[in-house]
Amino acid sequence: MPIRVFRANPIAHGVFGEGKVHRELTEAGITVVPDVEDADIVLSDNPKWLDRYKTLPRRFAVYTYEPRFCTEHRPIVWREGFSSPIHVMDVYTRDVFIDQFLYMGTGAAEPEIALDTLMARFSAKPKNTAAMLAGYRAATEILIAGLPRTKGPVDIDLCALRQDIARAMKAGAGIDIFGRKWPDGLASGEHRAGPWHAVKLDLLANYQINVCLENTRYPFYVSEKLWDATQAGCLPVYHGADNHIYEVFPRDSFFEVAGQTPEQVAAALAAMPDDERADRYERCAQTLVRVNRDRPGPVSRAALRVRVARFIERVMETPLFGGAEPASGPAAASAGAA
User: Which Pfam families match (predicted)?
Assistant: First the structure.
């Protein structure tokens, strides 16, 4: 049976990004329709975009791989005024990121890249030069419950730490910052126009160090940042304490910032001997070459699309309740926990 999905907001990226048609969805009979009147499911990457459609006799779903778009842990949520429950598939329902490779090779991938090529890139650069490619965020806190080894809500944001590290490095040995909205003239420039991955590799061509912390920390949340830094010939400065990255990278590879103050990070990088920096980068490069042989990125993304298709099928199986919350069952249990 065909399943017709209407996007409640323009979705630029991901499985339901504008103009994207994936085999895993079409094989499940899932199509995107331009008119909500023709849809079975109203989909968004952020719950707020569903509000204007809440009284319609439709099923509702939120799917996103961006940790900031939706912070709901429950797979089924009831909201006041909605005709049906909202089904959720996001980072916190633990069925989006299940390995470290989802973003690997999403840019200008080099499938046959060799260790010698990567080491030549690193060695050709001026020693101990650092760059960071990130815009400035004034408000960054994201409080989340359920992070391993913690009790109670935890701020999983890394933007503030990343920005503080950049400030500390700017005041010390120096760093070039590329990104929008930085105060006090801290940035050397904004991101240049063009395909982002190619622009990134071009910007990093003259730097041995790339401060590339993720925006957030959460199990298996590994974006393209670490992979791209290594591909560009840079020693990554990274926070890997919570995302299982040490199942892939050795502990003495990228420079770990977890457990250190921004000032300690800046001082350690400034004092790092050239041979240690080169040895650390070589371990990162060896990891990239080794992992890249199996092409895990495309495999991970194809598996995600299958999970998304199954998610949409489950949403379609939900009865339309006409705005009356069911008296029992998973949706009622979820509502009781709200």
Answer: Glyco_transf_10 (PF00852)
The residue extents of the domains of the chain are 3-97+299-337, 115-294
Give the mean pLDDT of the chain: 89
> Using CA atoms, how far apart are residues 126 and 305, in angstroms rounded to an integer?
42
> What does the pLDDT read at residue 328?
40
Look up residue 176 and give its two tokens. 């070039």
Distance CA 311, CA 319 (A): 15
More confident residue, 19 or 199: 199
Question: Which ranges in the chain belong to alpha helices (H)?
Answer: 23-26, 115-123, 159-171, 196-203, 224-231, 262-271, 274-292, 296-316, 330-337
Tokens of 135: 């815009």
Quick one: which of 315, 219, 312 has its CA closest to 15?
Answer: 312
Q: Determine the average pLDDT of the residues in 148-164.
A: 84
29-50 in b/e form (b: 16+ CB < 10 A) is ebebeeebeebbbbbbbbbebb
Going by the DSSP 8-state scheme, the letter that residue 243 receives in this structure is S
CA dist 136 and 160 (Å) reads: 9
CATH number corresponding to 115-294? 3.40.50.2000
- Examine the pLDDT at 31 and tell me if it is beyond 90: yes
Asked if residue 86 lies in contact with residue 326, where contact means CB atoms within 8 angstroms, the answer is: no
- Name every residue whose Cβ is closer than 8 Å to that of residue 326 and which is 6 or more positions away in sequence: 332
Q: Cβ neighbours of residue 242 under 8 Å, at least 6 residues apart?
A: 147, 148, 156, 217, 218, 219
Q: With cut-offs at 50, 70 and 90, classify the pLDDT of residue 151.
A: low
DSSP strand pairing (143-144 vs 154-155): antiparallel
Which of 212, 207, 237, 228 lies closest to 122 in space, CA to CA? 207
* Angle in degrees, 0-180, between the axes of helices 224-231 and 274-292, rounded to the nearest 10: 110
CA distance 19 to 144: 33
Which residues, listed in sequence order, are joined to residue 30 by a DSSP beta bridge? Answer: 3
Q: Would strands 86-89 and 76-77 be described as parallel, antiparallel, or unpaired? A: antiparallel
